[in-house]
Design goal:
Number of strands: 21
Helix content: 25-40%
CATH topology of the largest domain: Rossmann fold
Largest sheet: 8 strands, mixed
Low-confidence stretches: 34-65, 741-746
Number of domains: 4
CATH superfamily of the largest domain: P-loop containing nucleotide triphosphate hydrolases
Mean pLDDT: 85
Structural class: alpha/beta
CATH architecture of the largest domain: 3-Layer(aba) Sandwich
Strand order of the largest sheet: 4-3-5-2-6-7-1-8
Distance between the termini: 45 Å
Strand content: 15-25%
Radius of gyration: 26 Å
C-alpha cells in the first residue's frame, strides 16, 4: 500500500493511503458533536451538537454529506480498479460457503487484504473480522476499506480494534457493523472480555505465514469455533507465501481447498554470490559497489540487524556515489525515520537514488516503490527464549525459502529487477521460519488461554509446543498464585491478565506495590520500560554523530545515576513533561496552541524527541502502559490495599524485589575485565560483556552486584547485558527468590 505523500500532516479524513499511527483525525468521526473539538479532520456527514438539538434528535445529514455506497457502486469501482483478486470473487464466496475453511494463497499486489473482507461482508452478512499481525496495518487497512466500502471513513460499516498501548486508550477501537480489522493480540483480549467471536460470521486470518504468537492462538480458537458452530462460522487463511499443507492438515482439508490468486509482480532475475567466510557487511558493500551502476532506481540491502546496518552505512558512506542517499530501515526506528524511506520519492528527491539498508521488516510490512536491485544477505536475527535458563536469546539464522522469495519480490513491484543472494541456493533449508510460539516464553500465553476457559495442555496449537514447556509455565503460574491446583484462574490471575505483562513482571509490580504503595509511580514507569524491548535500542542512532550523542547522554546519565533503570525512568519523565498543557489556559507551555482535551502537545513532544534522538512512538507506548497500569492497580474492583512502607531507599526496594522474581538475572562485575568478560552471571555461570548504553560502563563501580534485566546471547560464547540495577550480594540478601525450580530440564 502506498504512503500518503503528505505523511501525518494529511488532513483528509477519507485518505486511502498509508499513515503512521500518529496520524490523528477525530476518531469519533461522524458521531463527534463537540463544536470545539481540537481535531481538524472530520467526516462530512458529521452532525454537531447544535444541529442535533435544532433537529430534535432526528437523523439529518449535512449538505455535503456522502450517502453510503451501494453494492452496485462498489462493483463498478472494483471493475475500474481491476485488482487481480476480483477475478476470484465469485469462486471465493461460493467455495467458502461450501467448504467453511478456505486457504487463499494470493500473491503480492493482488488486493487480498482489502477486498476479501468486503466480498465476505456482502455475501455472508453478519460481522467479518480480519486479523493483522501489526497495528499500523490494521488501522490503515480499516481506513482504506471504509472509504471503498462506505464512501466515508471508519466508524460506520468498517472499524478496527488494536492494543491500547500502541495508539492510546482513546484511539484503539472504532466500531464497525460489517467489517472489523483487528490485531491478533487484540482479538484474543477482546474475546476474553466480550466474546466478539460469538458474533463473527467470517474470520479472515491475514498474513498467516508470519505465525506470530497470537496468530497461532487465533488459529486454534478458529478450529474450536468451527466445531462449536458447524453451520454459521467460516474461516479464511490468507497469505502471499503461506505453507498450504500445514493449514490443510490442521483443518483436515484436501489440496483442492487452496485458492490461488496471481499478483502484480514483474520478472526478477536471481543471482548468487556467496560470502567467502568474511564479514557479511563488507561482502554486501563490495557487491553493492559492483552492481550499483548497472541498475537504475533504488536498492534494498537486507542485513540481519540494526548493528550490521549501522556498520554498512558507515562503510558505504566513505565512497558513496554521487546523487545517492543511504538510509536505515528497521523496526526500532521512529515513524519519522521510517518515513524518510517510505516517502522518499514524494519529496524533492527526484534526482536522487536511495540505498536502503534494512532488516526483514522490508519483506512484507512496508512497500518501497521503484526498487530495482535487492542484495540479500540471507540472514535474520530471531529472538528465542531459553526455557532452561529462562533467558532471552538473539540468534542470527539463515532465512527460510519463503522469506527469500519475499525479499526477491521487492525488486519486482513496479518494474523488472534483479536480486543477488549472498549465499548458496542449497543454504535455504527451511521452507518457513520457525513459528514464534515454539521459541517464546509461554507463561503469558498459558495465562491467556486459561482466561479463555481452555486448557493449555489440550489447546489445538497448529504447531504444539513441547508439553514439558507448557507444564513449566503452568507450574510457574501456580507459584505466582495465578491459578489453583486444578488450573482454574484465580482473582490474582485475572488481575495479571488485565495488566497484560509477563506474569513475573506483573508479580513484581503488584507485590512491590502492595508493600510499598507510595512508589507506584516509579513501578508503573519501570515495568513498561522493561517490557518495551525496543526502548533502549531506539536510542542508539543510525548516523555516527547520533551514536556519539547517545553515548555522551549515557555518560552524563552515569554521573547522576548508578542504575540503568532509574536513568531510563529519568529520560521518560523528562519526555512526559515536554509540551505540557497549562491547566488554567488549556494551552501548550511551549508553542501556546490551545488544546481542550489533551494533556500534552503532540507536536512539541515529537519535536523534543527529535532533538534528543528519542523514538517518540516508543515513548507514547510506554506512557500508555504507564497510565493503564496505574488505572488498573488503583481500580476499586481489585480491592488492593497498598502498604506505606518506604523506610528503604527506592533503589534498594527495586533491587530486592526484582531478585525475588528474576534470580537468574543476578550477576557480579569482575575486578579484572577482559574482552567479552566484564561480568559473570551467578546462577548460570556464564560471562557477559557490558553494553555501551549502560551507565555501568561509564562510572566507577562501588557495588559490583547487580541484576541485569536485559541478557542477550549473541552467539554461543558471547552474552551482552544491559538495563542493570544494583542489588545486594547473595550473602547479604535475606529475601528468598519466589521463582525457583520452574525451569525446563534439557
Amino acid at each position: 500500500m502506498a504512503q500518503c505523500d503528505q505523511g501525518d500532516a494529511c488532513s483528509n479524513f477519507y485518505c486511502a493511503y498509508l499513515h503512521s499511527p500518529e496520524w490523528d483525525p477525530c476518531e469519533a468521526g461522524s458521531k463527534c458533536v463537540d463544536i470545539m473539538c481540537s481535531h481538524t479532520s472530520h467526516p462530512p456527514d458529521r452532525i454537531l451538537q447544535q444541529q442535533q438539538q435544532e433537529n430534535n434528535n432526528q437523523e439529518v445529514q449535512l449538505p455535503n454529506s456522502k450517502p453510503l455506497k451501494s453494492i452496485e457502486q462498489r462493483q463498478i469501482e472494483r471493475q475500474n480498479t481491476q485488482l487481480p483478486i476480483l477475478a476470484a470473487k465469485d469462486e471465493f464466496c461460493r467455495r467458502l460457503q461450501k467448504e467453511r475453511v478456505l486457504v487463499v494463497r494470493a500473491e503480492t499486489g493482488s488486493g487480498k487484504s482489502t477486498q476479501l473482507p468486503q466480498y465476505a461482508a456482502e455475501y455472508f452478512g453478519g460481522l467479518v473480522v480480519c486479523t493483522q499481525p501489526r497495528v499500523i496495518a490494521a488501522i490503515s487497512l480499516a481506513r482504506r476499506v471504509a472509504n471503498e466500502y462506505d464512501g466515508i471513513s471508519v466508524g460506520k460499516s468498517v472499524g478496527y480494534r488494536v492494543g491500547h498501548a500502541s495508539v492510546g486508550k482513546d484511539n484503539n477501537r472504532v466500531p464497525g457493523t460489517d467489517i472489523l480489522y483487528v490485531t491478533d493480540a487484540a482479538l484474543v483480549q477482546e474475546n476474553q472480555e466480550s466474546g466478539v467471536l460469538r458474533d463473527t460470521r467470517v474470520l479472515i486470518i491475514d498474513e498467516a505465514h508470519e505465525r506470530s504468537l497470537y496468530t497461532d492462538i487465533v488459529i486454534g480458537m478458529a478450529k474450536l469455533l468451527l466445531n462449536m458452530r458447524p453451520t454459521d462460522f467460516y474461516v479464511v487463511i490468507s497469505s502471499a507465501t503461506v505453507d498450504p499443507k500445514k493449514f490443510l492438515d490442521f483443518f483436515q482439508l484436501t489440496d483442492s481447498s487452496i485458492l490461488n490468486v496471481p499478483g502484480r509482480l514483474y520478472e526478477v532475475r536471481i543471482g548468487y554470490d556467496p560470502n567467502p567466510r568474511g564479514s557479511i557487511v563488507e561482502h554486501a558493500i563490495s557487491v553493492l559497489f559492483k552492481l550499483y551502476d548497472q541498475f537504475q532506481g533504488h536498492t534494498l540491502v537486507f542485513l540481519p540487524g540494526a548493528r550490521e546496518i549501522q556498520q554498512a552505512i558507515d562503510l558505504f558512506n566513505r565512497n558513496i556515489p554521487k546523487n545517492c542517499v543511504a538510509l536505515p530501515l528497521y523496526a526500532a526506528l521512529s515513524p519519522e525515520e521510517q518515513n524518510q524511506v517510505l516517502q522518499f520519492d514524494e519529496g524533492p528527491n527526484n534526482e536522487l537514488r536511495m540505498v536502503v539498508f534494512c532488516t526483514n521488516i522490508a519483506e512484507t510490512s512496508v512497500t518501497i516503490n521503484n526498487v530495482r536491485l535487492v542484495i540479500d544477505s540471507g540472514l535474520v536475527k530471531e529472538p528465542r527464549f531459553d526455557n532452561e535458563r529462562r533467558l532471552p536469546i538473539i540468534e542470527t539464522m539463515q532465512i527460510s525459502r519463503s522469506s527469500a522469495d519475499q525479499r526477491t519480490g521487492r525488486a519486482g513491484r513496479t518494474a523488472p529487477g534483479y536480486c543477488i543472494r549472498l549465499y548458496k541456493q542449497t543454504d535455504l533449508i527451511r521452507q518457513n521460519i520457525e513459528p514464534t510460539i515454539l521459541r517464546s516464553s509461554l507463561d503469558l500465553v498459558a495465562l491467556r488461554i486459561i482466561c479463555l476457559r481452555l486448557d493449555p495442555m489440550e489447546f489445538p496449537f497448529i504447531d504444539p509446543p513441547d508439553a514439558t514447556i507448557i507444564k513449566a509455565s503452568l507450574d510457574l503460574l501456580k507459584k505466582l498464585s495465578c491459578i489453583d491446583t486444578d488450573h482454574f484462574i484465580t482473582r490474582r490471575g485475572q488481575l495479571f491478565n488485565e495488566l497484560g505483562f509477563d506474569p513475573c513482571y506483573s508479580a513484581f509490580l503488584v507485590d512491590t506495590y502492595l508493600e510499598h504503595g507510595p512508589i507506584l509511580d516509579l513501578l508503573a514507569s519501570v515495568v513498561p520500560i522493561l517490557t518495551t524491548s525496543s526502548f533502549r535500542s531506539d536510542m542508539i542512532g543510525a548516523l555516527e554523530e547520533e551514536k556519539q550523542a547517545a553515548r555522551n547522554r549515557v555518560i552524563d546519565g552515569a554521573k547522576e545515576h548508578d542504575s540503568d533503570l532509574l536513568y531510563l525512568v529519568s529520560i521518560f519523565k523528562k519526555w512526559c513533561v515536554s509540551g505540557s498543557i497549562d491547566p488554567n489556559t488549556h494551552s501548550c507551555q511551549i508553542c501556546h496552541m490551545r488544546s481542550s482535551k489533551e494533556s500534552s502537545c503532540a507536536s512539541c513532544r515529537a519535536a523534543y524527541s527529535r532533538t534528543h534522538l528519542l523514538n517518540n512512538r516508543t515513548l507514547c507506548i510506554i506512557e500508555n502502559l504507564y497510565e493503564t497500569t496505574i488505572k488498573v492497580l488503583t481500580n476499586s474492583h481489585w480491592q488492593l490495599n497498598p502498604g506505606t512502607l518506604v523506610d528503604t531507599e527506592e533503589s534498594d526496594i527495586l533491587g530486592i524485589n526484582l531478585i525475588k522474581y528474576f534470580p537468574e538475572r543476578r550477576g557480579e562485575i569482575l575486578s579484572k575485565r577482559t574482552r567479552f568478560k566484564d561480568a559473570i552471571m551467578i546462577q548460570s555461570g556464564f560471562y557477559a560483556t557490558l553494553s555501551d548504553s549502560s551507565v555501568f560502563s561509564h562510572r566507577k563501580i562501588v557495588n559490583p552486584h547487580f541484576i541485569a534485566m536485559s541478557v542477550m546471547e549473541l552467539s554461543s560464547d558471547v552474552h551482552r547485558i544491559d538495563q542493570l540495577h544494583p542489588c545486594q550480594s547473595p550473602s547479604e540478601s535475606t529475601e528468598q527468590p519466589i521463582i525457583t525450580n520452574v525451569v525446563v530440564n534439557s
